[in-house]
Here is the input.
Amino acid sequence: MQKVLQQLIELQELDTRLDILIARLGDLPETVKTMEKQIENEKEQNKIRQTSIEENESLIRSNTAKIEDLKEKTVRYKEQLYLVTTNREYDALTAEIEFNEEAVNNAEGQVLQAEEENERLREAMGHSEKTVQDMEQRLVEVKNSLEETQKQTEEEKTELEKKRSELSAAIPRNFMSMYLRVRQARNGLAVVPLIRDACSGCHNRVIPQKRVNIYKRNQVITCDYCGRFLFAPLEKVEE
Here is the structure.
């Protein structure tokens, strides 16, 4: 059991050092992912805006042609008013003229609305493109910083992970499973020293009989309160 306890202590030390290396990266990896997603979203929104602009331009062209055609017809109808000989013909032409003039007004309204919307969309695209440009520049800086930090830590991280893999394989499966479970539940600390007769993880005092066994280092003892593995520092064992 003394061997298993020492293995767990060494495993915790390795994991703590790995946690420190990962902490050196800070939130850079997550920042990179977030910025890439934001840039992707902005570009996607601009694609949607561009599609809307093209649809509006098509609407403007079709309505412009429609307006010209209606106006030409209206001019002809007005010229024909002077040639009609009956009230029925006059009323029919007048109705056509009014209908065309209303259709022209509706088409011009649609053109105006589409033009205003395109102006708003182009303005939004301009702001978005400037935002994307700034974010892409910032992203390069963040990626460079991340890459530099990774270079600084990669060699040490690789060595620690190799040692951890070898050590994990040597620890009995039941202890390894418990270690992983406690480590996940206790903020990365699954193995802690006994300090002033208390668990240094949760600070609860350990009963005398357990303390004796902990100081002997001949058993794998866990805290009754937080479940962490407990050990006595070597200087305490010597005392």
